[in-house]
Amino acid sequence: MENQEVISMPRIGETAPEFKAVTTQGTINFPSDFKGSWVILFSHPADFTPVCTSEFMTFASMESQFAEYNCKLVGLSVDGLYSHIAWLRTIKEKIEYKEMKDVEVKFPLIEDITMEVAQKYGMMMPGESNTKAVRAVFVIDPKGIIRTIIYYPLSLGRNFDELLRVVIALQTADAFSIATPADWRPGDDVIIPTAGSCGVAKERMETKEEGKKCYDWFFCTKELSKEKIMSEIKKK
């Protein structure tokens, strides 16, 4: 049996792998240049492709929304810098899509023709393509720790409202020491983390707290207003 190359992938809870790269906004040292900010590092398969174009226009149009939550954007593909520049210029000058027009991509787009960064972050999936990165998303916190990883195949465009929701949910969980249930949006009830043993949890379940609701000893929620969340996590 032939030896197969083992491609390592960073995991949630680990420090984001370091790299230095040339981008459309100059050279960056990642993640050190972004210390103190949340950051979304994402890959796309190729410049001058339709799904990627729709994604970059959407991300660029939403950049200010991410910035409100102290979150910066960094893109990557295995194309070269001049290809990146030409593609982004074409987007701004020629593409009008879903009422998005004259869209200027101001966040960095990494040149990775050697595939060094893509390999380091496990963005190359041989079963999908040996020459293009899949649509990977890494949400990294201000300490440089990977908090969320999402992968999409080449054919599937990402849901950018969901990516923003992820950032808000992570920051809310950190700020209030809670968890968020399925389909959570700011203003919905949040989950009170389970407290150790069944006995302790049952005792907590019986404790009176305004806005708290327990469905069983392991499943309790409480109210957390959108206003309180925004006052705590939104960038001042």
CATH architecture of the largest domain: 3-Layer(aba) Sandwich
CATH class call of the largest domain = Alpha Beta
- CATH evolutionary superfamily of the largest domain: Glutaredoxin
- Largest sheet, spatial ordering of strands: 5-4-3-6-7
Characterization of this structure:
- The structure is a single chain.
- The protein is an alpha+beta fold and 236 residues long.
- The protein folds into two domains: 19-158, Glutaredoxin; 177-233, Antioxidant, Horf6, Chain A, domain2 (Antioxidant, Horf6, Chain A, domain 2).
- The chain has six helices and ten strands.
- The strands form three sheets. It has a five-stranded mixed beta sheet with strand order 5-4-3-6-7, with helices on one face. It has a three-stranded antiparallel beta sheet with strand order 8-10-9, with no helix packed on it.
- Strand 1 and strand 2 (26-30) form a beta hairpin.
- The longest helix is centred in the N-terminal third of the chain and has 18 residues, at 50-67.
- It is elongated and about 65 Å long.
- The model has no long low-confidence stretch (mean pLDDT 90).
Report a brief summary of the structure.
The protein is α+β, with helices and mostly antiparallel strands and 236 residues long. The protein has helices spanning 50-67, 81-94, 116-120, 160-176, 198-206, 226-233, and strands at 19-23, 26-30, 38-43, 71-77, 109-111, 135-140, 146-152, 190-192, 212-216, 219-222.
Q: Which keywords apply here?
A:
236 residues; alpha+beta; Glutaredoxin; Antioxidant, Horf6, Chain A, domain 2; 2 domains; 10 strands; 30% helix
